[in-house]
Amino acid sequence: MTILEKGSTANSPLPQVDSSTSSKARSGSWLVVGVLVAAVLCCGLLSLMIGNVGISPARMLHVLFDADSTQASAIIHQLRLPRTVLLLAVGLALGVSGALMQGQSRNPLADPGLLGVSEGASLAVVLAIFWLHIESPAAYAWFALLGAGVTAWLVFAISAVRGGPSPLTLVLAGAAVSALASAIITSIITSNVSTLDQYRFWVVGSASGRGIEVFWQVAPFLVAGLVLTVICTPAINLLQLGDDAARALGVRPGLHKFLGICAVMLLTGGAVAACGPIGFLGLVAPHVARFCCGPDYRWVVPYAGLIGAIVLTLADILGRVIAGGAEVQVGIVMALVGGPAFVLLVRRARLVQL
User: Fold this and answer.
1) pTM for the predicted model, two decimal places
2) Is 136 strand, coil or helix?
3) Cβ(327)–Cβ(319) below 8 Å
4) In contact, 269 and 121? CB cutoff 8 Å
5) By the 8 A CB rule, do 104 and 236 touch?
6) What parts of the sequence cross the membrane (predicted)?
7) How do the domains of the chain map onto residue ranges?
8) Those residues with Cβ within 8 angstroms of residue 41's Cβ, 6 or more apart along the chain or in another chain
9) Please, what CATH class does the domain formed by 30-349 belong to?
10) Are residues 2 and 350 in contact, defined by beta-carbon separation less than 8 angstroms?
């Protein structure tokens, strides 16, 4: 599948199916969706079993449904279950928002950070630590959601030229706002040691130490984002043809772009609020999904969400065991493993051709 062709313009559809690949061989399937759902459940169970204290499958299933006063029950219900739920939810949100971003912007290298949402959430957390002396990860969530929302709306307002925001203006506005937020963050944390000490544990991206209350705080935003995703996803295929062609086919490009941006804001904001900024997942998951099902975004979006949940959970499990008794944060594992894996995927599958 060729995503970028030489001479393509901002108004031309980027996703194209290679003539050598039959549509039948590269189409979505409910069977594959079922397999991915089963893989998500398996990853969740593995996350409950694996860690510094290993728990057998039989013991894990027993205490999961019948909690008692044993150490295994405490580990699962107080530590691993909230962590696993957050990982699955955040992975799903980042995968879906990455697919939306790439479809809405017609840019195969886009990810949720393209709108500056991650940097905006990070800036809000830094300001909360610096000015209000907030120290609880649960409290970070509210400020991160606020920062993500303000940033997304700011980018949308800046990029809203006549006819609505275009892929080019969205990218430029997102890059500008991200650079501004990053500069403010750097100026604060380099001048205040206590803020840096707290912020550096959040910014690497991790589900460790988050209680189930963090999930319930962000769950309404994630659910709202998924509802908007269901509404705007069917029109993404037509948006690939350009605004004029989509309008001629009965689609309102401005409305669907607006709904897509709101969905990305809610999903990415909730994910960043819960676990901090986690890079690469929103970029890689949609590419893997397109490799499996072709360019039809009605399949790409759910595939990307399920793949995101699987990849993030496996990365967290790997971080627990890769360093022996220590633990590597999932954001670091995603950067170390996701980068080379994505390069290999691009070179072997020819997903992107510049």
Assistant:
1) 0.84
2) coil
3) yes
4) yes
5) yes
6) 30-50, 84-101, 113-132, 139-158, 170-193, 214-238, 258-285, 297-322, 328-346
7) 30-349
8) none
9) mainly alpha
10) yes
